[in-house]
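Researcher: Please predict.
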Amino acid sequence: MVRAVAIVFFLMFTSGPVWAAEAEPFNPDAPFQQGLTTSLLRSLLNQAFDGLEDHIEIMGKLDSGDVKGDREGRLQFKFYPEGKSKSDQHLGAEGWFHVAPEGGQHDWHFRFTLPKDRKNSPLQFEEPL
């Protein structure tokens, strides 16, 4: 009987540290560290969106048309190289379409615009191609 009790105590005391080693140590700062990384990522993402918003402007309009099924749409894109807050100079692209299913007519139009002040622009050519 003494031998059985000794073996039980031996097994109990040697298996205790194994169970303790399996458990993850408690870190009281873990929730704050996780929140810090999330807020840091959100802050960086917001800065990136603000930068894009300052340099790019996209507007569009899609009309379902009238009863005949005609459809019209328009998309306008503006790129401000220096940012909207610093300059009004921009490169623009605009496209619009008109679809009339009865006549099978599909009209697509595109227009690209450069800044009005192109004196310092590297796009000027000395000789025609």
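Model: The chain has one domain: 2-113.
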